[in-house]
Each structure stands twice: as structure tokens, then as C-alpha cells.
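Side project, low priority. Logging it here so it doesn't get lost.
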Amino acid sequence: MHHINSKHIFLSVIVFLSLICLTIPAYTAVVVLKTGERINGLVLNKTDDVIEVSVQGKPTVYMMRDIKEIRGKQVLPQGLMKKEIEKAVASDFGKALSRAAGGKFEEAAQMFKKIVEDNPSYINAKEALALSNDAASGKVSRDYALYVFEASQQMLKENYALAIALFQKALKRNPKAIELYYNLGCAHQFLGEHAKALPYFEKLIKINPEAQEVLFKLGVTLHALGRYAKALPYFENLEKLTPDDPQVFAFLGTSYQALGQVERGNEYLYKAKTLFEARGETLNSQEMEAMLEN
């Protein structure tokens, strides 16, 4: 499946940006639909998905995908807009990471702080900021921080084998840094070394049985190893915690199909298909459709 993967990775530079939908102050604007219709009214609210415009006191909600311009500015497709934002944030993050890997912790901390201020949900930057501050103050050893930041740079460059070696050096410097288990597990996953990734995620889930990202990673790892029956409990737990995540339903569906429970697997795949459709993820939706067995 094209986008079925974990979403948050501590300092592994898998850039994930949650755009928070905020209520905005009302303002007047000319909104142009893709049909060419021009709407002159009061914008009451706008999110990534919809815009609410009031004309002569009558509010109407339009889908953002149907909007061409607002106040003369072209509206980018939502996916493209997010990609452009993610690209810009990734560039800034990479520059800050380079400073940190060079031992310029205070300078890097200021750069990470700016990223966090602009993107409060960007977990990678928050974690990097904390480590930069800890390294600058001497709370953690300089060598440990340098290994972690350099390993993170190698993850960004997709040099996963080198990243693993550096994370392992960092772990030797600070054996209590259990968060590095996640990095190591993810790096092994990216190399297709699922059997090597498994112990790291198993250790983490014992520490925090409700950690959603670890539950997901553990389920995916077992699924990749063909251990579908063992993967199911983790995805079923996630189904309760994240009932609107199509990725979870997709893995549940394929797991049940692999175990011979085709009808039940189809039910989950259909749910995944519907949720992917609602998100506008056409390729994933089509893939779910192709996986449905008669």
C-alpha cells in the first residue's frame, strides 16, 4: 500500500505535519469557484477542507477542492499545499539538524524553537529542541547528542545502516535512552530487516502498552513477517484507540484475509476504502478496492 506507514518518528526525519483547523476571524472576500462563479461575501470560517461564506446573511459551506481563488490568490490543491509546507519545514529542520550535528547546540536550539513556534504539532522539532537544550546545558553528554543528531541526519539521507551504527553508539553512551529503541526499530524496518526491528518495538510496548505509534509499528512488523495472528491484537487495540484510521483497517483486513477469514477481512478493507475516499486518497482507496475478494 502506498502510504501505509507510521506517522511520528522521534528524530528520524519522517516529516509529518498536522495542520490544525482553527476558527478564523470573519473577513470579506471574493471567492471564485472552479466553475467560474464569483461569490462576494463574508468568510465566516475556513479549514483545509471547507470554507463557509455568508452572502446577505445566508451562510453556505463550500468544499475547498471546488475553490479556484480567494481574494485573487489561487488556492492550491490541499495535497499540494501540504506538500509545499512539509517541504519548507523539512528544509528548515534539516538546516537546524546540521547545526546540531556540528555541535552548535545553542544555535540549533533557536532554530528548532522557531520551527516549533510555527508548527506546534511537529514532534520531531520538539524532540530535537529538547535534546539541543539538554546538550547545551550539559544535562546530556556532548558525544551522546552528537551521535543522535548525526544519526538523524543519516536517516534524512536514507543511509539507514550508518544511522543504526550511530544510534547504537549513542545508546552505549546513554543506556537509559530507551527512546532510541524506536529509532533503531524504524531504521531496521526501512532496510526490510523486520526480524531485527521486532525486539526494539517489543521492549517499548512493555514499557508503554498504550503507545499508539509503537502498537502500529509492532503490528506492521509482525504483519511483514507473516505472523498475522500475532499482529491482530495490536491492530485491534489501535482500532479502539483510533477508530477513523484507514491504515489500521487496511492491515486488519489483509491480516484476516491471510488467515482465511475472507469475509471479515473484506469488511475491514471496505471500511479502509471508504475512509481513504473521504480523505481524498484515491490511490489507496483503489488499492483497497483491488484487495476485496469475492
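Brief comment: The longest strand covers residues 38-46.
Revisit when time allows.
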